Amino acid sequence: MNKPAGGFVADYGPEEAAFRAYCADGERRAMALGNRGPIRFTADGALHPEIVEAYSRHGFYVFEGVLGAEELADIEADFLNIQSRLPTAPGSAVDAQGRPALALGNEGLNLVWVKPLSDPVGGTRAAHGRYPVKMFEPKPADGAPEKVVYLILGSLQFSEASLRVYGHPQLLGVAAAINGPDFTPFNEALWMKEPGRGASVAWHQDGWTHWDSADFDEGSHGFNFMAQLYGCTPANGLWVVPGSHRLGKAAIAAMVAAAGTERLPQAVPLVCKPGDVAMTNRQAVHGSFANTSPDWRVTVNFGFHRRRSVLGVKGGGVHNAEAIYDAERIRRRARLIGYAIDARRQRFPKETPFVYAPHAETGEAWRWDEAAQADIKDYNLLDLGV
Length: 386
Prior knowledge:
- By secondary structure, this protein is α+β, with helices and mostly antiparallel strands.
- It is 28% helix and 15% strand.
């Protein structure tokens, strides 16, 4: 693969040795959990009960070897193209070659800019205040840009390869097993944590709608898939507190205070090879550190909900403007599943496509073509965040 060059900061700071030891210990504990392996289904098509149990117990699972070399090459080509098309700076209308920049003219939020190696949300009121503690911010190398794009929202409109991952029959089979055959979309993103520049994400739990619901359980706020282009390591990947998805709203500030550091001792890292896909419960306490490693992390991220967690619910403005998620909004947002399945069918005709139950029941057929490409512009304005 042809990873783009990036900055590199070898020094995490005055506690670099402690951080490296923390990473090594975390990886050892993560690999001993027993929640990783290939996607497996039983003879009758159910997700293997060992996977269901391990995911339920820990709140995350690493599916190994989901994406092959051919598909990874497609994703990388799209990623490199996206990198070349980014605006030269926030507010710029052109890329480095003077062409119209990526997402120019879109209404929805697509490009998220941050200062290199910063924690832009920790200790603020962002996203309903779900990031109560600020992470350590290493110093970028001299010559680093003022800001970089580290997150692209509504990413399926910019990468057909990512759209095809979204339509992966085994991954959609997992979604149906966990959230029911009428599962609904959440949102999609492309995470780009560049060496020496990638920002941290402070410890948090996703979701804000169902914490106090009478029927709250471990699946109330859905899950995310994270497909890894180059793999991920403890230094650049996501960390999760196993089992925290079952316990309701966590006192994260107290957890950090008790540890005396933002390096939570009970957390473990997602460790993935290229082509692995991690599944993480959105209710789990999770976060990541600034990427001072020499390795890129590029993650194709997409999530799903149970329909009953979304239908009739009012959004809270984190992933879109406040709106009531009625059946028509869900239907329109779920057209991306139909487009993705057909896009994948065209690229990988030997696969058996996934059959999405709501589309089969209504007889809707979504064809991926030029008209569909135009139709998904700004599709993330209909994201279903709970």
